[in-house]
């Protein structure tokens, strides 16, 4: 069974960077043609796609967040990392990591709440 688990600090001060980790079990993040995405949902709003990192380790970011976002991975730990810099309260959201295979986001983590507040 594929499982994704997000983790990270629940509270971040404005202007600081937030860093989240997604630990994957039951699947390898290097499996051909799998994409690993980060998605967030601000309170009272819809889902927002942040970007993905491919099975080759190549990242692709949403244009709206590209200047502040960085994604990486640790294949030895089967983990993905998301960093968002220069945060504001508008970055407050539940953050999810997901797997996309054959154009379907078939597995999601449970999500982790991040609040940006002083």
Topology:
Blueprint: E1 3-7, E2 11-12, E3 18-25, E4 35-41, E5 48-54, E6 59-61, E7 69-74, E8 79-84, E9 93-101, E10 104-108, E11 112-116
Parallel strand pairs: 2-11
Antiparallel strand pairs: 1-3, 3-8, 4-5, 4-9, 5-6, 7-8, 9-10, 9-11
Question: TL;DR?
Answer:
The chain is mainly beta and 118 residues long. The chain has no helices and eleven strands. The strands form two sheets. Strands 2, 4, 5, 6, 9, 10 and 11 form a seven-stranded mixed beta sheet that branches.
Q: What fraction strand? A: over 45%
Uncertain residue ranges: none
What fraction, in percent, of the residue positions are helical? under 10%
Shape: globular
Tell me the number of strands.
11
Mean pLDDT over the residues = 97
Secondary-structure content class = mainly beta
The radius of gyration computed from the alpha-carbon positions, rounded to a whole number of angstroms, is: 13 Å
Largest sheet: 7 strands, mixed
Number of helices: 0
Model description:
The structure is a single chain. This protein has 118 residues and is mainly β. It contains no helices and eleven strands. The chain has strands at 3-7, 11-12, 18-25, 35-41, 48-54, 59-61, 69-74, 79-84, 93-101, 104-108, 112-116. Strands 2, 4, 5, 6, 9, 10 and 11 form a seven-stranded mixed β-sheet that branches. Strand 4 and strand 5 form a beta hairpin. The N and C termini lie far apart (39 Å). The mean pLDDT is 97.
